[in-house]
C-alpha cells in the first residue's frame, strides 16, 4: 500500500501560501512569554555547563585537600568554596550537574517511550488489551512514587543504572495513563472515524491522525515529570541508593555536606539550591509550554 | 417600587468587546431597547450576532477582566453596572434570573434538585429551609414535573433532558423574578420536548406576568413565543418590531434573507435562496453596515458608515439605508 | 469530472431496479454498566432495522435522540460492528467471503459527520485531509493533491485560498464543505449525511443544502440524509424513514409520510413542528414526557408509553410492518385489522 510508505507530514505542495502550522504557532506564543523564555534560557545554561563541565571546571573535582576543607564562597581559586574533603565546589557542581541531569532526564525519556507506547496502544485498540495494560499500570500506580523508587533501587542495589531503571519504572504508569487518556479522547473524534471510513489501516491512522494530536500533550506531561525525577534521583543518591562516592552528584553532595551546614551554610546549600533551581525551571517551562500549546488548531 | 409605567429594563448604548488573541472582538456595538413588565422579547440571530453576550451583559455575568463594557443597563431604575457586587448578587435570582441551553452544566451535580431550589429561596428570602422545601415542591409541580415529590430528591443526572430543563426553569422561578432571561432554552432538546418546554414557558410567563428575554437562532421559537422580536447581526439590532411585523413584513434584507433561507413548508424542488457568504469576523468589522458584504441591495452609502436606526413607526425600527423604501417581503 | 479519473468509478452491477443498499434486520445492543446481579443490561440502540435505498434517491431518516439513527449510520459504515443483520450493497453482501470487503464498501459509501470541526484533523492542512483517502487507496501524492484541488472547487471553495489552510481558520460552513469534499474524494455512490447541516447557521445551511442537491445531480449520488429537522428532510428527501427507540416506525415516499402520516409517532412529530406564524401558534404539545431510554425499552410497541391510542395489545405484541400501498409501510396495530386493537378497523 503506497500510502503506508508515505511520510506522516503529507507535505502536499499547494500553489497558495501555506498557513503557519501548529508548532510554528506554539513557538510564536512561547517567544511572547518572558517567564518561560527565561526558564528555558536558564535550563539551557545548566545543561550546557553540565555538558562542557570538563572545559569549564577550574579544578579537578576529585582532588581532595585536607588543609583546604570547607572554605567559604569567594576563596581565591575556589570561587564557590570547597567541600568537606577540600574539593573545589564549583567543579563538583558542574560535574554533579552532569550526573544529576542524566539521572533526572533519562528515566523520563525511557518512561516516555515505554509508557507512551503502552498508553497509545491501550487507548487506540481499547477493549481487553486496554484492560490488561491499564490494570497493570494501576497496580504500579498504587505505590507512592518515592517508596516505589526506593524499594526497586534497594532491591536492585545501588548504582547509576539501577537508579535509572528504578525511576523509569516509577514514571511509566503516569505516562501510560496520560497517553491512554489523550489517545482515547482523540480516538473518539470524528476525524479518526472519517479516516477509518476511508479504508485506512490502523498503522496509517495512528501515524497520520493520532500521533500528531497526542504527542504534544504527552510530551508536556513528561516535561513536568523531569523536575520530580531530578528530585527523586537526588533523593536516591542522598540515601546512598544512586550514585556512589566519590562521584559528584547534587543529591549525594547535599548528603555529604549536611554536617557542614553549621560551619559553611552557604556552601552546604549550593547543591540543594541547584536542584531547586533546575526543577522549578523545568516546572515553569513545562507550564509555559502547556499554555502555549493551548492554541486552538 | 416604581410604578408600572416605567420600563422594567432599559438598555442604552450597550457595547461589549473582548480581548482575544487575534485582536479586539466587538461583540456588541450599540444596543438600545426598553422592556415593559410582562413582555416577551426575542433576540433572534445567528452565531456571533451578539445575542447571548447581550443576555449575559444584562446580568453582569461577563468576565470583567477580559471584556470592556460600555453603556447603561437600568433594571427597575437601578444601574446594574454601578451596583456593588454584593447587591448585584442579591438581584440575580431575585429580580432577574436565567435559564441556560444546557441545564446539565447549569445545575450543580452534587445536590438534589429540591436542595438547590430550596437553598436559593433561603439565600434570597431568609425563610426556613423547611418552608423553602415546600415552595420547591410547589415549583416542581408548577413546571409540570410528574411525581414532583419524588423528583425533589433526584440529582440532575438522574433526570431526562426535558425534566432537567423543567427543573432549571423551576430554579430560575424560585424567587419570582420580574425578568427571566432564557438562552436557547430548547435548542438541545428533542422536537416533541421542545414544544412542551416552549408551551410551559409561555404559560408561566402569562400566569406570573413575568418579562422574558429569549435568545434564539430559530425563527419558529420566536414565532411561538415572542411579543416583540429584535433581529441581531454583528452586535446590533438590525430590526425591531412586534413578532407579527418582523416575521410578516421584514424590513431589513437580512431578516428577509434569513426567512427565505430557512426551510419551511413545502419548498421541494426549488433551490433555496441562501444568503451568500458567512457572518462577519468580529475582530475586523467593516466600517459601514456589517451585512453589506452579503447584501443583494448594498449601495455606496452602506459601506461608508453604519446605517442609523430608522423608525418606521413607534416601536418599529430597521437599521438599513433602504428602510423607507419597501424591501421585498419573504416568500 | 476530468481529473477525478485517477480513481476509477465504481461500476454499477445490478441495474437501476436493484436497490443500491438494502439492510436486513440490523441490530446493535450496547452493553451498559449496571447492577452486579441479574442479567447484564443492554441499550437496544438499533433493534432489527430493515430498509433499502434505491439508486439515485435520497432517503431521509428522522427521529429523536436515542432513536438509533446515528448508530445506524455508523453500523452501515461498519465503524461499529453490528450484532446481527445483513448489509447488501448493489447485490453484494458486505463482509462475507464472496461478497464485498470492508475496504471496498468504504470506497462505495462515505459519510459526513455533524461536527464539522471534530471531523477534520486539526494538524493537517485542508489539502492533506482531502488527499488522505485517495492516497490510502493507492493514488500518488501528486495526483491526490490534484484531486483535492478539484474537490475544493466542486464544493465552492477556491483551491488557491484553502488548500494550505488549517481547519480552525475556516468558518463552520466552509469546514462542512471540506467534509463533503472529503466524502466525495473516493468517488462513492452512496453518501451518508449524519446531521450534516444541523450545526450550521440557517443562512449557511441553505447554501450547503443547495450544494448537496447540486452535487447529487452532477455526480449521480445516492444520499441517506439523517436529521432531526423535519422541514429540511421534507425539502431534500424522496423517501423518509421514521425511527423510534431503535425500531422503524414508518417508512414511505415523502409525499405519503408528510401528506398522510400513519404512525401516531410520526403525527406527533409533525405537530411538534414550530409554527412560523405568530398568529397561528401551537396550542398544545402533541406528546408528554421525553423519549424513554433504550435500556429496557417498553414491551410490545415501543411507542405505547407515549401513544394516545395505546391499549392492551400494544403492550403484548410488537406491531408487524404493514404495507399501506405504494411502499408506505407502518408498524402500528392501528393499521393492522388483524391486530385486535379496538380502533384498528377505523384505520385499516
How would you characterize this protein structure?
With 297 residues, chain A is an all-alpha fold. Chain A has 12 helices and no strands. Chain A has a single domain, classed as MetI-like fold (Orthogonal Bundle), CATH 1.10.3720.10. Chain B has a domain at 1-95 and 211-331: Rossmann fold. In chain B, helix 4 crosses helix 5, helix 4 (113-125) runs parallel beside helix 7 and helix 7 (161-172) runs parallel beside helix 8. The longest helix of chain B has 18 residues, at 191-208. Chain B is globular. Chain C has a domain at 26-33 and 40-116 and 181-297: 3-Layer(aba) Sandwich (Rossmann fold), CATH 3.40.50.300. In chain C, helix 3 (126-136) runs parallel beside helix 6 (172-184), helix 4 packs across helix 6 and helix 6 runs parallel beside helix 7 (202-219). The model of chain C is unreliable at 1-5 (pLDDT under 50). Chain C is α/β, with parallel strands linked by helices. Chain C has helices at residues 69-76, 102-108, 126-136, 141-154, 159-162, 172-184, 202-219, 230-236, 254-259, 264-271, 312-316, 344-347; strands at residues 21-31, 42-53, 58-62, 84-89, 92-93, 109-112, 190-194, 222-226, 239-244, 247-253, 321-323, 329-331. Chains in contact: A-C, B-C. At the B-C interface, helix 7, helix 8, helix 9, helix 10 and helix 11 of B face helix 6, helix 7 and helix 8 of C.
How many beta-strand runs of chain B?
Answer: 12
Low-confidence stretches of chain B: 325-331
Mean pLDDT across every amino acid position of chain C: 89
Q: Please report the distance between the alpha carbons of the first and last residues of chain B.
A: 46 Å
Largest sheet of chain C: 8 strands, mixed
Shape of chain C: globular
Pattern of helices and strands of chain C: EEEHEEHEHHHHEHEHEEHHHEEH
The CATH class label of the domain at 1-95 and 211-331 in chain B is Alpha Beta
CATH architecture of the domain at 26-33 and 40-116 and 181-297 in chain C: 3-Layer(aba) Sandwich
Level of helix content of chain C?
25-40%
Number of helices of chain B: 12
Structural class of chain C: alpha/beta
- The radius of gyration computed from the alpha-carbon positions of chain C, rounded to a whole number of angstroms, is 21 Å
Shape of chain B: globular
Under the CATH scheme, which class of the domain at 26-33 and 40-116 and 181-297 in chain C? Alpha Beta
Runs of chain C in which pLDDT lies below 50 for 5 or more consecutive residues are 1-5
Decide which structural class fits the backbone of chain B.
alpha/beta
N to C succession of SSEs of chain B: EEEHEEHEHHHHHEHEHEEHHHEE
Bin the strand percentage of chain C. 15-25%
By CATH, the topology of the domain at 26-33 and 40-116 and 181-297 in chain C is: Rossmann fold
Membrane topology (chain B): Peripheral membrane protein
Main location (chain B): membrane
GO molecular function (chain B): ATP binding
Subcellular location (chain B): Cell inner membrane
Amino acid at each position: 500500500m503506497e500510502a503506508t510508505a508515505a511520510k506522516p507530514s503529507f507535505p502536499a505542495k499547494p500553489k497558495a501560501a501555506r498557513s503557519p502550522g501548529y508548532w510554528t504557532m506554539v513557538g510564536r506564543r512561547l517567544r511572547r512569554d518572558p517567564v518561560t523564555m527565561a526558564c528555558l534560557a536558564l535550563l539551557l545554561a545548566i545543561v550546557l555547563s553540565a555538558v562542557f563541565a570538563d572545559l569549564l571546571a577550574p579544578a579537578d573535582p576529585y582532588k581532595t585537600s585536607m588543609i583546604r576543607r570547607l572554605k567559604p564562597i569567594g576563596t581565591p581559586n575556589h570561587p564557590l568554596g570547597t567541600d568537606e574533603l577540600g574539593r573545589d565546589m564549583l567543579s563538583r557542581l558542574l560535574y554533579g550537574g552532569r550526573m544529576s541531569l542524566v539521572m533526572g532526564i533519562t528515566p523520563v525519556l525511557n518512561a516516555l517511550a515505554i509508557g507512551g507506547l503502552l498508553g497509545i496502544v491501550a487507548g487506540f485498540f481499547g477493549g481487553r488489551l486496554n484492560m490488561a495494560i491499564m490494570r497493570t499500570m494501576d497496580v504500579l500506580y498504587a505505590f507512592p512514587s518515592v517508596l516505589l523508587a526506593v524499594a526497586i533501587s534497594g532491591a536492585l542495589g545501588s548504582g547509576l543504572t539501577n537508579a535509572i531503571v528504578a525511576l523509569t519504572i516509577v514514571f511509566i504508569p503516569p505516562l501510560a495513563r496520560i497517553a491512554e487518556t489523550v489517545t482515547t479522547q482523540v480516538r473518539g473524534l470524528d476525524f479518526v472515524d472519517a479516516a477509518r471510513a476511508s479504508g485506512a489501516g490502523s498503522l496509517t491512522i495512528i501515524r497520520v491522525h493520532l500521533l500528531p494530536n497526542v504527542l504534544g500533550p504527552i510530551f508536556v506531561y513528561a516535561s513536568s515529570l523531569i523536575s520530580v525525577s531530578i528530585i527523586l534521583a537526588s533523593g536516591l543518591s542522598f540515601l546512598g541508593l544512586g550514585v556512589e562516592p566519590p562521584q559528584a552528584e547534587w543529591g549525594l553532595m547535599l548528603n555529604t555536606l549536611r554536617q557542614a551546614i553549621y560551619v559553611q551554610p552557604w556552601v552546604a546549600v549550593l547543591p540543594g539550591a541547584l536542584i531547586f533551581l533546575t526543577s522549578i525551571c523545568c516546572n515553569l517551562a513545562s507550564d509555559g509550554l502547556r499554555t502555549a500549546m493551548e492554541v486552538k488548531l | 417600587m416604581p410604578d408600572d409605567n416605567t420600563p422594567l429594563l432599559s438598555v442604552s448604548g450597550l457595547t461589549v468587546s473582548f480581548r482575544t488573541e487575534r485582536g479586539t472582538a466587538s461583540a456588541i456595538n450599540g444596543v438600545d431597547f426598553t422592556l415593559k413588565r410582562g413582555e416577551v422579547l426575542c433576540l433572534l440571530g445567528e452565531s456571533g450576532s451578539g445575542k447571548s453576550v447581550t443576555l449575559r451583559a444584562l446580568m453582569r455575568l461577563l468576565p470583567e477582566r477580559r471584556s470592556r463594557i460600555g453603556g447603561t443597563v437600568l433594571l427597575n431604575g437601578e444601574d446594574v453596572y454601578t451596583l456593588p457586587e454584593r447587591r448585584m448578587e442579591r438581584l440575580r435570582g431575585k429580580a432577574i434570573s436565567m435559564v441556560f441551553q444546557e441545564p446539565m452544566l447549569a445545575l450543580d451535580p452534587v445536590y438534589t434538585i429540591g436542595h438547590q431550589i430550596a437553598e436559593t429561596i433561603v439565600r434570597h428570602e431568609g425563610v426556613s429551609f423547611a418552608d423553602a422545601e415546600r415552595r420547591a415542591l410547589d415549583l416542581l409541580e408548577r413546571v409540570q414535573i410528574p411525581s414532583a415529590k419524588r423528583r425533589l430528591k433526584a440529582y440532575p443526572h438522574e433526570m431526562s433532558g426535558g425534566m432537567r430543563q423543567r427543573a432549571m426553569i423551576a430554579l430560575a422561578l424560585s424567587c419570582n423574578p420580574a425578568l427571566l432571561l432564557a438562552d436557547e432554552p430548547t435548542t438541545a432538546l428533542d422536537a416533541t420536548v421542545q414544544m412542551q418546554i416552549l408551551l410551559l414557558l409561555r404559560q408561566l410567563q402569562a400566569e406570573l406576568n413575568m418579562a422574558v428575554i429569549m435568545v434564539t437562532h430559530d425563527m419558529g421559537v420566536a414565532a411561538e413565543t415572542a411579543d416583540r422580536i429584535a433581529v441581531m447581526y454583528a452586535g446590533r439590532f438590525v430590526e425591531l418590531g412586534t413578532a407579527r411585523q418582523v416575521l410578516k413584513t421584514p424590513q431589513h434584507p437580512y431578516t428577509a434573507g434569513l426567512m427565505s433561507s430557512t426551510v419551511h413548508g413545502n419548498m421541494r424542488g426549488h433551490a433555496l435562496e441562501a444568503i451568500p457568504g458567512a457572518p462577519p469576523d468580529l475582530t475586523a468589522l467593516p466600517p459601514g453596515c456589517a451585512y453589506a458584504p452579503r447584501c443583494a441591495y448594498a449601495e455606496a452609502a452602506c459601506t461608508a458608515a453604519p446605517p442609523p436606526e430608522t423608525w418606521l413607526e413607534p416601536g418599529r425600527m430597521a437599521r438599513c439605508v433602504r428602510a423607507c423604501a419597501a424591501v421585498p417581503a419573504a416568500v | 469530472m476530468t481529473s477525478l479519473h485517477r480513481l476509477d468509478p465504481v461500476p454499477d452491477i445490478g441495474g437501476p431496479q436493484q436497490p443500491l443498499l438494502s439492510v436486513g434486520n440490523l441490530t446493535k445492543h450496547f452493553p451498559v454498566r449496571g447492577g452486579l446481579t441479574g442479567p447484564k443490561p443492554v441499550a437496544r440502540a438499533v433493534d432489527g432495522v430493515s430498509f433499502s435505498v434505491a439508486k439515485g434517491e435520497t432517503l431521509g431518516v428522522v427521529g429523536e435522540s436515542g432513536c438509533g439513527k446515528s448508530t445506524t449510520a455508523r453500523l452501515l459504515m461498519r465503524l461499529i460492528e453490528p450484532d446481527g443483520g445483513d448489509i447488501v450493497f448493489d447485490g453484494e453482501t458486505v463482509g462475507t467471503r464472496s461478497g464485498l470487503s470492508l475496504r471496498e464498501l468504504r470506497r462505495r459509501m462515505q459519510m459526513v459527520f455533524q461536527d464539522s470541526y471534530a471531523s477534520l484533523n486539526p494538524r493537517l492542512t485542508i489539502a492533506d485531509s482531502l488527499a488522505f483517502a485517495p492516497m490510502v487507496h493507492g493514488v500518488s501524492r501528486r495526483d491526490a493533491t490534484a484531486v483535492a484541488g478539484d474537490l475544493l472547487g466542486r464544493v465552492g471553495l477556491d483551491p488557491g485560498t484553502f488548500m494550505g489552510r488549517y481547519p480552525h481558520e475556516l468558518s463552520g460552513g466552509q469546514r462542512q464543505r471540506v467534509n463533503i469534499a472529503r466524502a466525495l474524494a473516493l468517488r462513492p455512490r452512496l453518501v451518508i449525511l449524519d446531521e450534516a447541516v444541523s450545526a450550521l447557521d440557517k443562512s449557511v445551511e441553505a447554501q450547503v443544502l443547495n450544494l448537496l442537491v447540486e452535487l447529487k445531480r452532477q455526480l449521480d449520488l445516492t444520499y441517506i440524509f439523517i436529521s432531526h429537522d423535519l422541514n429540511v428532510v421534507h425539502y431534500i428527501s424522496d423517501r423518509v424513514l421514521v425511527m423510534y427507540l431503535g425500531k422503524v416506525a414508518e417508512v414511505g415516499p415523502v409525499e405519503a409520510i408528510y401528506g398522510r402520516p400513519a404512525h401516531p409517532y410520526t403525527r406527533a412529530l409533525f405537530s411538534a413542528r414550530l409554527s412560523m406564524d405568530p398568529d397561528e401558534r401551537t396550542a398544545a404539545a402533541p406528546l408528554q414526557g421525553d423519549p424513554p431510554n433504550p435500556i429496557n425499552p417498553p414491551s410490545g410497541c415501543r411507542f405505547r408509553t407515549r401513544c394516545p391510542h395505546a391499549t392492551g395489545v400494544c403492550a403484548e405484541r410488537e406491531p408487524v410492518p404493514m404495507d399501506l400501498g405504494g411502499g408506505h409501510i407502518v408498524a402500528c396495530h392501528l393499521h393492522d385489522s388483524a391486530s385486535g386493537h379496538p380502533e384498528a378497523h377505523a384505520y385499516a
